[in-house]
Amino acid sequence: MQVLVIGYGSIGKRHAHILQSLGCQVVLVTAQQVTEFTCYASIIEALSNESIQYVIIANPTALHYEALLLLIQCDYRGVVLVEKPLFSFIEKLPDHHIAAILVAYNLRFHPLLIQARKIIENSKLITFSTYVGQYLPDWRKHTDYRHCYSAKKELGGGVLRDLSHELDYALWFCGPAQSIAATGGRLSELEINSDDVYAVLMTCVACPVVNIQVNYLERQPRREISMNTNKNTILVDLITGKLFVDGKLHNEVTDGIAQTYLTQHKALLRKQFDLFCSYGEGEAVMKLIGNIEEVAKTNEWI
Question: Does one domain contain both 114 and 223?
Answer without folding.
Answer: yes
